[in-house]
Amino acid sequence: MVIRRIYSVGEATGYLRDLLEADALLNSIWIRGEISNCKHHTSGHLYFTLKDAASSMRCVMFRSRCSQLNFLPSNGMGVIVRGRISIYERDGQYQLYAEELASDGMGALYAAYCRLKEQLQAEGLFEQEHKKPLPHLPRKVGVVTSQNGAAWHDLVTVMRRRFPGMAIVLAPAAVQGEQAPREICSALEALDQRPDIDVIIVGRGGGSLEELWAFNTVEVARAIFHLHHPVVSAVGHETDYSIADLVADVRAATPSAAAELVAPSHLELEHRVRQLQDRLILSAVQGILRQKQRQLQEIGERDLGRYPKQLLFQHKQELRLLHLQLTNKMQLLRDQASHRKQVLAEKLDSLSPLAILRRGYSICRDPVSGRLIQSSLLVKEGDPLEVILSEGSLRCKVEETKRGDGSGVS
Q1: What is the dihedral of CA 209, 211, 215, 219, to 10 degrees?
Q2: How far are the Cα atoms of 49, 131, 138, 190, 229 from residue 186, in angstroms, in the given order?
Q3: Which of 45, 101, 117, 191 is 20 to 30 A removed from 70 (C-alpha atoms)?
Q4: What CATH architecture does domain 111-127+138-264 belong to?
Q5: For residue range 366-397, what is the model confidence (pLDDT) as tens digits?
Q6: Residue 340: beta bridge partners?
Q7: Rounded Cα–Cα distance for residues 8 and 10 (Å)
Q8: So where are the chain's domains?
Q9: What is the distance between the alpha carbons of residues 216 and 333, in angstroms, rounded to a whole number?
Q10: Closest to 214 (Cα-Cα) out of 253, 254, 173
Q11: Percentage helix, strand, coil, to 5, in the chain?
Q12: CATH assignment of 9-106?
């Protein structure tokens, strides 16, 4: 029985890497191609794809080497690269580790882009005089993009946040591939024929020059130029302009930015309405005040100019009358208060125990405890008593008690 060694994925990948790196040709090789999917990473490294008509390969150039470049690599540029080919073990894919990078022309796609740009610019398709303004508050917005792409989701999300009641109509179209230019043109023309559409957004998310090429075609450029509605181009790339960007009435860097341009903020609109209301109210109040001031000034100038002494005498008479009325009113209030005080004093005096005593009655109480004696049952013979009169008091001693007839103590 033959025993075979079984290798792990990592071991097999490492073996292939060693083979590639041991090859003298692949350890320092010059390759010509066109840059695609170019990404300048925040770390300073450069990642791109090098391609031609037959094939493509992944490339990376580290920061130390990028710092020596005398130009900025970008999509569509034709370049010559020197580097070593090895395998990135994590992904198991071979790639070129670039050591040197030199320009080799613009590349076929970029050259075609430049030729079309010059042609359409000469025809006047980019002129500012053809640009149509965007509506401040569109009733309905038409969108041409892929219904399955992130651009459509971003557009709807931003518009719903900024203006929840905004109506959006999607005319779906492929945004890359051979059929994309024809589908984009058909979707644009369909939306342009609708009278309820106020503005059209056409675009997609970012990508390489090849992926965005549908927006660099003469068909799409002329379709955008001949639309009656204003058009916002939202091809998702921050730095480079597509032909569609140059022909459109307004260019937005991303689909989300296009939604920000087209859909007004409902919060800002509400704030603006409140400001205008406040200004109208303030203006109305100020107008009334100015009118009353003019009337008062006219009256003053008219009357004081004709009868100054008569007006002064009249005002003095009115002042004397008011003073007399005030004095009489104060005297009346004092008299009413004095009378009420007297009535209350008499009523209080009539309720006083002293007034009862003055009518011949007396109060009998225990001289020790001060308890009032209201019944003969409360005392017995020989108990001391104090009898309070209207004037003075008496000290007595009980000699006899009588009960039953309510006549009290003798």
Answers
A1: 110
A2: 33, 21, 22, 6, 15
A3: 117
A4: 3-Layer(aba) Sandwich (3.40)
A5: 888 888 888 888 888 888 988 888 788 889 99
A6: none
A7: 5
A8: 9-106, 111-127+138-264, 270-330, 352-410
A9: 98
A10: 173
A11: 45, 20, 35
A12: 2.40.50.140
pLDDT in tens, 118-163: 999 999 999 999 999 999 889 899 999 999 988 999 999 999 999 9
pTM, rounded to two decimals: 0.52
Query: What order of strands is seen across the sheet that includes strand 363-365?
Result: 363-365, 384-388, 393-397
β-strand pairing of 363-365 with 231-235: unpaired
56-61/93-103 β-pairing: parallel
Q: Which H or E element spans position 100?
A: strand 93-103
* Residue 9 in tokens: 């994925």
Find out whether 272 and 287 touch, Cβ atoms under 8 Å.
no
Q: CA–CA separation, 57 vs 85, rounded Å? A: 10
